[in-house]
Amino acid sequence: MSAKKLLKGRGLRKTAKKTAGSARANNGFTYEELINAESALGRTLFGPVPEGHQREFFESKPNVWIWHESFVNQLGRMEEMTIRYEVRPTGVYKKPMGGTYERLQGDELDNFRRAARSYLALVKSKLYC
Fold first, then answer.
1. Distant-in-sequence, close-in-space partners of 104: CB < 8 Å, separation ≥ 6
2. Closest listed residue to residue 94, CA positions, set 120, 55, 68
3. pLDDT, tens digit, for every residue of 13-71?
């Protein structure tokens, strides 16, 4: 099933987005609460999150995905990595924080597609069923 088709089933989040800022959606959740709930599910797709790490994976808006991971390294310094993925008609592109867009290819593209499909199926079955 395509991401577009799965997204159509997520009207709950769309409703919350329309009402965000002034009132809660009919479902009782704000847009931000739904994004946080989706992200909590998304972080489980890649196995257990190591202690002391923070991991987020979610679709911030249609065709835009965010991967974020942060942790304190052995030297006591905070390390962070945020990557923005954009699904465009010409392909899937990633942009690391402070970097430039690169087109995904090969295994990296396959892994992203698999993660996005798993994410959409998971949030649909757990949050929007």
1. 85, 91, 92, 93, 94, 112
2. 68
3. 544 444 344 344 446 778 888 888 888 889 888 888 888 889 999 998 899 999 999 99
- Which carries the bigger pLDDT value, residue 61 or residue 8? 61
Q: What is the rounded CA–CA span in Å between residue 42 and residue 7? A: 15
What is the distance in angstroms between the CA of the first residue and the CA of the last residue of the chain?
A: 16
37 burial level (CB within 10 Å; 0-12, 13-18, 19+): middle
Q: Among positive and negative, which fits the CA dihedral 13, 53, 50, 105?
A: positive
63 phi/psi in degrees, rounded to 5: 70, 15
**Residue 115 in contact with residue 3, Cβ under 8 Å?**
no
Residue 94: which of 58, 64, 59 has the closest Cα?
A: 64
**Domain residue spans of the chain:** 3-126
Going edge to edge, which strands form the sheet with 102-103?
53-61, 64-72, 78-88, 91-96, 102-103
Given a contact cutoff of 8 angstroms between Cβ atoms, the answer to whether 59 and 38 are in contact is yes
